[in-house]
Design a protein that fits this description.
The complex is a heterodimer.
Chain A: E1 3-5, E2 10-14, E3 19-21, E4 24-26, E5 32-39, E6 46-52, E7 60-61, E8 64-69, E9 74-79, E10 88-96, E11 103-105, E12 109-114
Parallel strand pairs in A: 2-12
Antiparallel strand pairs in A: 1-4, 3-9, 5-6, 5-10, 7-8, 8-9, 10-11, 10-12
Chain B: E1 5-7, E2 10-13, E3 19-24, E4 31-37, E5 44-50, E6 53-57, E7 64-68, E8 74-78, E9 87-94, E10 107-108, E11 112-116
Parallel strand pairs in B: 2-11
Antiparallel strand pairs in B: 1-3, 3-8, 4-5, 4-9, 5-6, 7-8, 9-10, 9-11
Classes of the chains: A mainly beta, B mainly beta.
């Protein structure tokens, strides 16, 4: 079974600085999808960024980028120019290509932005 | 455009009771998935329905059941509630399922907070 591990329960960063959230996963599949979701206090999970495993190029969405290391099964999220609105729980998630559209989530990292 | 809507937003039930949670997907989305998020943990997959058929089931007891209607809305039913069923229940919809990734990204609702006392 696939597993996702986020080893940082909490992180904090000064506003306008850069922070990196870590994620590792375990799978025997060669092709799959990886995601980062943000969950603010409103509870709604919001998709931040996605990565297809067959693509070597790291995904980027404005201030958000990933460092995808397939051999190491690592998928970290970098947030540049942190803003107060970035404060939330961040979840890393894995989805297999085949079978049910099932997201496997990590335990989450609580990100605090200090003004 | 309306996002994924879930009802009710909060619910308090007594042990042993039955509960029905409802989800309306984004217009045009045919896949609905349900997740349970216990406080302090990541969401756990319960079910996926696509075109009214069950496509996947997580490691949950038979007390959990779901269905999808012709308009693609969905219900999650939980029988014989236990204290451990207290959680945030999230519904996610997507346009289709499988591959490619475009069109299969999951969009989540705000969840139903279920408290069992």
């Amino acid at each position: 079974a696939q597993t996702v591990t986020q080893s940082q329960p909490e992180m904090s960063v000064q506003e306008a600085e850069t922070v990196t959230l870590s994620c590792t996963y375990d799978t025997s599949e060669s092709d799959y999808y990886l995601f980062w979701y943000k969950q603010p206090p409103s509870r709604q999970m919001i998709l931040v960024i996605r990565q297809e495993a067959y693509k070597q190029q790291n995904a980027t969405e404005n201030r958000f980028s990933v460092n995808f290391q397939k051999a190491a099964k690592s998928f970290s999220l970098k947030i540049s120019d942190s803003q107060l609105g970035d404060a939330a729980m961040y979840f890393c998630a894995y989805r297999a290509i085949q079978g049910a559209q099932k997201l496997v989530f990590g335990q989450g990292t609580r990100l605090t932005i200090n003004p | 455009d309306a996002g994924v809507t879930q009802s009710p937003t909060h619910l308090i039930k007594t042990r042993g009771q039955h509960v029905t949670l409802r989800c309306s997907p984004i217009s045009g989305h045919k896949s609905v998935s349900w997740y349970q998020q216990v406080l302090g943990q990541g969401p756990q997959f319960i079910f996926q329905y696509y075109e009214k058929e069950e496509r996947g089931r997580g490691n949950f007891p038979d007390r959990f059941s779901a269905r999808q209607f012709p308009n693609y809305s969905s219900e999650l039913n939980v029988n014989a509630l236990l204290l451990g069923d207290s959680a945030l229940y999230l519904c996610a919809s997507s346009f289709t399922t499988g591959t490619p990734i475009s069109g299969t990204e999951a969009f989540f609702g705000q969840g139903t907070r279920l408290t069992v006392v």
